[in-house]
Amino acid sequence: MDGAHLPVVVVGGGQAGLSVSWWLGRRAIEHVVLERDRVAGEWRNRRWDSFCLVTPNWQCDLPGFPYAGPDPDGFMVRDEIVAYLERYAASFDVPLAEGVAATRLRARREGGFELHTTAGRLSADQVVVAAGPYQVPMRPRMAERLPAGVVQVHSSEYRSPDALPPGAVLVVGTGQSGCQIAEDLHLAGRRVHLATGSAPRVARFYRGRDVVAWLHDMGYYRKAVTEFADADAVRFRVNHYVTGRDGGRDIDLRKFARDGMRLYGHLAGIDGPRLRFTPDLCANLDAADAVSEGIKDSVDAYIAANGIDAPAEARYVPVWEPAEEPDALDLEAAGITSVVWATGFGRDHRWIELPVFDGRGYPTHDRGVTSYPGLYFLGLPWQHTWGSGRFSGIGADAEHLARQIVAHQHRTVHTGLHWLAGTPYQTSPHDDEDWIAPRTVA
């Protein structure tokens, strides 16, 4: 591999990299997919034992490889997800280089790109960065102030209740990971303390169907980020929490609290064994419920507008209300021996030495196409739609980028004018129906 030149290099061999490889293969575009681990390494190594998808299996629709198992309305667990991706990689002739990490990407003076990898140097005409958005586990600096005897793990390191020392556990964060880990610990009989955040929730089922099915029919997963007035903010919204565990159900923090879990507002500070919280628990719970009920309003309106025969269903009634807003917690008095930081991930694109990032380090792009010719990103949340980055929508994004790659090849070779079968063509980067758009040349 050292010293090789390729038309396209894809960095990342997860669902994003495999999807764009499938489309490139369909167009006979020579390429290689670099995967620093093995296929599905992120799913295998950064998910806990009981992890499962929150979207139903029928939404697993990678290019040329829709879900074909016996339970389309179920939710694949971690090992099934890994097996699904392994089968996908084996289903077509993907030029995969496992155990090879990209360490540096920069422009070549003669055009194209130079990549430094753990297997040597490569050059490429075009590069797709499909390394995913969850690169660096994030912990707040205040974590350094916890007593040395408290075990700390990030959500990406959490595996099971038994892997933590005996005693109570504090989970910080109520995004999807935080809520599901808190439930995992709670169901195992552990005493759980949960510092909540502002993440919204969604009901699992409503009016006879999975809410995901309603939202799919309503077109939510196909809605482009550009249709929102605050498109930039939309890209950084936290996902709604829900679970596919045991066939799928709501995650109701109020129910957890009724059954013994201790809830708090945002974690505000740490002074040794004493923790301080913002008095916003009620606001966090109410806001999450309001989003869930608002989604039900949309479903009701869709059912009514389309004359759909769907069973009526009573609306949610809170099963617990905080008697007070707890503002402090003593770790020693509560018997807390471990903390799980479900505080998200950051991006680390320092290895990319090209001017395509904004002040937050986010790649600036139009549907994955950056301002630097020949460089693309794939697999970002809300890259184009709500389905982007998910098994349900990443294939469409991959196909779009494959079209741009073909168009870029033609532009590079023919300087914008392309003669195919004696017919003049000009590339159309915004055309979603054809790879190339016929155009009369004067």
TrEMBL record:
Protein name in the entry: MSMEG_0569 family flavin-dependent oxidoreductase
The keyword Oxidoreductase is assigned to this record: yes
Keywords: Oxidoreductase
InterPro entries in UniProt: Auxin_biosynth/cation_transpt (IPR050982), CHP04046_FMN-dependent (IPR024000), FAD/NAD-bd_sf (IPR036188)
Pfam families, per database record: Pyr_redox_3 (PF13738)
NCBIfam families named in the record: MSMEG_0569_nitr (TIGR04046)
Domain of life where this protein originates: Bacteria
UniProt cross-references to Gene3D superfamilies, sorted A to Z: FAD/NAD(P)-binding domain (3.50.50.60)
Record's keyword annotation contains tRNA processing: no
